[in-house]
Amino acid sequence: MLDIRITGGRVADIKNRQLKNADVGVKDGKIVQIGTDLPEAAETVDAAGQVVSPGFIDIHMHEEDFSITQKKGWDIAECMLRMGVTTAVGGNCGSNRQQPSEMEDLMRLQGGPVNYLFFIGHNFLRDLVGNRDTRAASTPEQIEQMARRVKDAVDEGAIGVSYGIEYARGMTYEEELGVCRYILGRDDLLLSAHYRRDAAGALPSIDEMAGLCRDTGIPFQISHLSSCSAYGNMREALDLIQKYRDSGLDVLADSYPYAAFSTSIGSDVFAPGCLEWIGADYGDIELTDAPYEHVRCTKEIFEDARKNYPEMYVVAHVMREEEIAMALAHPLVMTASDGLYRSHKGHPRGAGTFPRFLGKYVREEKLCDFFTGLEKITAMPAKRLRLDSRKGYLEEGYDADITIFDPETILDKATFADPQLAPEGISRVILNGKTALIGQTIVNGGCGRYIRRP
Ligand SMILES: [Zn+2]
Question: Which of 106, 321, 339, 421 shows the smallest number of beta carbons within 10 Å?
């Protein structure tokens, strides 16, 4: 007797690039059978007319902050589940909201809405070892302490190190390299970075990240390439990444499907001169929380928010749409959300990225064929995370992380005014073999597990 039998759907076979008419049987957290004449099940799901897909994998997002949630309920993890994500990677851009072990302890007790993996963030460690000056390089002693903490975090299952270079421009290349001194050559790990500078600084920033890949011997994930290069030099940025890839470096990138970026107003991203640098005006910057919720900046409001509400997230409507599409279409780029919320406020990408990518970019704009699109949000990130022997494909023996959706209707609904609205077109998500979501309703928010690096 199966736990779940999914009948009548079209099963996404990404390796052979075909939709197979078959039923899917789930038992004890695994996909145990794909075919016809499956045994009886405790729960039968009618998936007629829909695609039965591997659950989506978000390689770049920002987990909840326990100092805000108090570990009571979730914020972004629920948005992830509602948009079909079954596995998400936190600790990006150098920033952990708390020690990954805190998340592990919580999820051991009560699970979570999605599976979580984590980077250990360099900027987070800078803070822990006492370097709170974003303009200052860390001392040799601080670098040594961070390097040891990196080793410990990796030993405890972190997937690698993330950097938020733009958020602490005082960090030197020697510091970036130094924190990896005990993990050099570990090609089972992954580095990722929020680049040093965007726009005119994008290409030298890509050189810096490729240098880190070469000098550490660790694969490198360039984070949210859109906000780095969608100001006029995306073609050059993609060509440069391709050049490094062709030279033998394991460099890939991710990108989100929106022409607006988001970060906190107090961060160094908004240091003096930032707007001139990217060719933007104060009015392009939208604030997201009281007393300025959905207010576009003036010089006065911008300065007041930076001074008095530095943690507030803003949305910067500053990137070129055609370059967003160019990035998403590139074979070295996977789609990731960079989702980021503070008390449910922020940018809609955390609730809309994957349905938007499949609906707007793949179906409507035909940016790439359906299987290439699906691969960018399932198999490609699974492979990057070395989870592809158990996740990212829908095959017998794989983890039963399954997203069932209608390819004709799937679409994001979250907006800048209402950034956590659930998408349309996803009828069900099964996570670790249990039904987690039906329609837009989370029926079991505890199916997700903390995953230590395999
Ligand atoms: Zn970032």
Answer: 321
Local confidence band at 16 (pLDDT 50, 70, 90 cut-offs): very high
CA distance 100 to 451: 11
> Do β-strands 190-194 and 160-164 pair in parallel, antiparallel, or remain unpaired?
parallel
The length of the chain, given as a count of residues: 454
Ligand 1 centroid from CA 107, angstroms: 25
User: Which one-letter DSSP state was computed for residue 40?
Assistant: P
Q: Which amino acid is at 286?
A: E
CA nearest neighbour of 239 among 321, 173, 333: 333
Give residue for tokens 């279409």. 329
pLDDT digits (tens, 9 = 90+) for 157-170: 999 999 999 999 99
Distance 201 CA to ligand 1 centre (A): 15
Could you say which of 3.30.565.10, 1.25.40.20, 3.40.50.970, 3.20.20.140 is the CATH number of the domain covering 54-259+319-389? 3.20.20.140
- In tens, the pLDDT along 389-448 reads 999 999 999 999 999 999 999 999 999 999 999 999 999 999 999 999 999 999 999 999
∠ Cα 99 101 104 (to 5°):
125
Return residue ranges of the chain for CATH 3.20.20.140: 54-259+319-389
Residue for token digits 């995370």? 385
Taking the centre of ligand 1 as the mean of its atom positions, its distance from the CA of residue 167, in whole angstroms, is 9
Q: Pick from 424, 399, 408: which is nearest to 57 by CA?
A: 399
Read off the pLDDT band of 100 (50, 70, 90).
very high
Mark 243-268 as b/e (b = at least 16 C-beta within 10 Å): ebbeeebbbbbbbbbbbbbbbbbbbb
Question: CB 274: neighbour CB atoms within 10 A?
Answer: 17
| pLDDT value at residue 454 | 82
| CA torsion through residues 351, 355, 359, 365, sign | positive
**Do 44 and 73 form a contact (C-beta atoms < 8 A)?**
no
Q: How far does residue 400's CA lie from ligand 1's centre (Å)?
A: 30
pTM over 0.85: yes
